[in-house]
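dude i think i finally got it to work??
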Amino acid sequence: AGGTLQVVPQSGKISEELKPTRFLAETCPVKFGDKLENVRVDGFERAPNMEYALESSSGKTMYSYADGKPAAYTFTQGKGRVMVLGFVPPDARAIEKIFGDLKLDPAIARSGDMDASASMLKSGESYYCLAINSEDKAKDVELNLKIEGAAEPVALDMLTGKQVEAAFDSGVVKMRISLEPFWGRAIALLPAKPEKIVIEAPETVRPGEDCAYRIRVMDGNGKIISGRIPFEISVTDGSGRQRPECGGYHVTEDGVYEKNIRMGTNEPVGEWKIDVKVPWGGLEAKNTFMISN
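look at this
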């Protein structure tokens, strides 16, 4: 099955190497025209944040501006499709409408307040929601977060690590959160609560060799929590000196983090210590390895 690629104004012009690219010209013949002012798109509640005239000889018109001119085209590419928007969707509800019109059913974050936006990303089996208050007054906002899977997730405040009260029904997580003026909150939806850290390290390493250690964040049943979880690593060498280049602040990838340290030929021999702290749940773990000649 093919996928769907959405292109908004100013995207598709620069490659990952920060070089000009002919991506649009090669995949879908569409031309961006002049920037428009105060032109609405038919079928959307709010006016776009940015809109441009569009022109194509082969694309299928998906949306139109209020004056009847095309606002978005779709192009078939193999088994997939490319959608080129002449405008930037103004809010999460506009993005939700686009997904619905394309007959896609992805994870969706919806805020009950039009002036408090909500967006969501997925990593592994975990989701991460960002809610932002765009008004100069505090408010309580109801969030409806549609996720995949039938299991109820654990909702954690990503700043404090505290659990957030939430209800789960038919794939939708519902919660009510407080937002300060012009401020936001980030909520993690994990498949389970982090309850254990496992540090794997070699018992002995010689000076000049590589030392690879591995960190896993587990739930109460000993299963790796699939997602991105932040933690801090502190490494102390055999002389008792902190080695920040060997640790630091990191996140797991799908519940696992791996680091390889190239030991110098004159490293202090003796016991080296690895300390790991996960702020979500206040978890800590320790392990050691020896450097010997």
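Helices lie at 23-27, 92-101.
im so relieved honestly
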